[in-house]
Amino acid sequence: MQIITNSFQKETKKHGSDGFPFLVSHERLSRYESGSFRWHWHPEIEITLVEEGRMTYRVNDHRFSLKAGDLLFGNTNVLHAGFMEDGADCIYTAITFSPRLIYGFSQSSIHTDYVEPLLQDFSLPAIRFDPSHSRHDSFGKIVEKLLHLDEQRPPFYELEITAELLLFWKELLSHRPFASSCPSHSRTEYERIRKILGYIEKNYSRQIRLKDISEHIHLCESECCRLFKRYMNQPLSSFLQEYRIERSLEALAFGDMPIGRVSEEAGFSDSNYYTKVFQKKMGCSPRQYRQRNRERA
User: N or C: which end of the chain has fewer CB within 10 A?
Assistant: First the structure.
C-alpha cells in the first residue's frame, strides 16, 4: 500500500464526503511499502495521534520524532511524510478535515479573522503536543471526543464533531504564541520543492538529469541542489534513488515481471546497481523481497 498522488504530489484520496469533509483513518506504518508513507500534500488539515510506537514525521523542512501519546497538528497544503524509527512499527490515527467545517463559507468573519490568518501562516506548518506540554490534555480530550463521535455516530454527530473542531481551533488560536516551533522559509522555496517532487513523480521511470530539474524550477543546478538539501535534509540524488526503489516495490511484491525489467521500469539503467541500492535501503535483495511477499500471500 502507498499514498496515491497526482503529478503535483497532491493526495488523490477523498477525505470524507462533499457534504461532510471529515475522515478518521486508523493506520500503521507497516502497511506501507518500505514502512513509510511518501511525501504528499492536501488542502485539508490533519491531526495525528500516535497510539503505539514511534515515527519520524516530516512536515515541509521540519522533522518531528513522535512517540505514543503525541499529537501533531498539520496545517493545510503542507508537504508531509512519515517514516519508521529503527525499523519498528508505529500505530497512529489521522483525523483529516476541510477547514470550511470551521469557517462555514469564504469571506465570513470567522474565515477572515480567525481561520485564514493561521492557514496562510507559512511559518506554522505544524505543531506538536507531547504529554508533558501544558496544553496537551485540553487538545487530547477534544481529539478523544472526535474519535468517539466518529466511531459511535450518535444522532447529530456531525453537529457535535463541528462543535469540537471549533473548540480545537479556539484552543489553537488562544495559545498560538507558544507554537512557533518550525523555521520559516519563503513560499517560493516551498513551491520549488513541490515542483521538484512533482517532476520526479512524473518522470522517475526515465533518465532524469540535474539540468532537467533545474530548468523546470528556473534555478541554476548548484542552487537547486543546495535548496533541496536544505529543505529535505538529504541530497537530491539520494532522494531520487530511494524514490525509484519505493516505486519498484509493488511490481516486485505482486507482479511476475523479471527483476531486470522492474529495475528498468523504476528508472535504473543497470540492474546490478538497482540490486545494490535496493539492498542498502531495504536490507535484502529484490529477489528476497519478492519471495517474502509471496510467502505472506
Answer: C
Q: 235 or 293: which carries more pLDDT confidence?
A: 235
The upper half-sphere exposure of residue 169, i.e. CA atoms within 13 Å in the direction of its Cβ, equals 25
Q: Which amino acid is at 274?
A: Y
Q: How many CA atoms lie within 13 A of 228 on its CB side?
A: 22
Of 103, 98, 101, whose CA–CA distance to 116 is shortest? Answer: 103
In this predicted model, what pLDDT tens digit does every residue of 122-172 receive, in sequence order? 778 898 988 887 777 889 999 999 999 999 999 999 999 999 999 999 988
Report the first-to-last Cα separation within the chain, whole angstroms: 14
Q: Which three cell numbers stand for residue 17?
A: 464526503
At 257 the three-state DSSP class reads: coil
26 vs 31, 38, 173, 290, CA distance in Å?
A: 11, 17, 27, 27
Distance CA 159, CA 139 (A): 19
Go through the domains of the chain in sequence order and give each one's CATH number. 22-179 (2.60.120.280), 187-296 (1.10.10.60)
Question: Quick one: CA dihedral 247, 61, 116, 99, positive or negative?
Answer: positive
What 8-state DSSP symbol labels residue 85? B
Closest C-alpha to 46, from 19, 90, 83, 76: 76
Query: How many CA atoms lie within 13 Å of 154's alpha carbon, on the beta-carbon side?
Result: 8
* Tens-place pLDDT, residues 162-217: 999 999 999 888 876 444 444 445 678 878 888 898 899 889 999 999 999 999 99
